[in-house]
Amino acid sequence: MSAGAHLENANPVIFQRSGERLLTAAEEDEDVHDPIDNREIFDLIRSINDPEHPLSLEELNVVEQIRVNVNDPESTVSIEFTPTIPHCSMATLIGLSIKVKLLRSLPDRFKIDVHITPGTHASEDAVNKQLADKERVAAALENSSLLEVVNQCLTSRTVSD
User: What is the pLDDT of residue 157?
Assistant: First the structure.
């Protein structure tokens, strides 16, 4: 966010972060088959930075564990995300950041579907169409300026509880 730029949602509601997941010995054992589940995917995306605010997508309630659906045997992951305002111009960038994080983190066998929670954005059909189009996503990731912004969203930052 450049200095002096206008914020679309200057005072977003901030939600409490959920606790960290405790790993079991079986989950940490590389020799045990451990299917990927909803919480594991949520843990991957919850800390993605919002492009407009110094907050995570979880803190803004843009992503929630109940909106993550994983089918490990069928190798599918579906994520619904909810922009903070109905006319959020950052919705495509947020969706792209979620998709990139999952593409970088999951095995290639997974089909990843990222879309806006129905009824929560004025341009949800257009944004969903862009996010579902593999060629558009690939072209976006070839744009060095856009890729830099996505990488900033994916960069870890210190989270205070």
Answer: 72
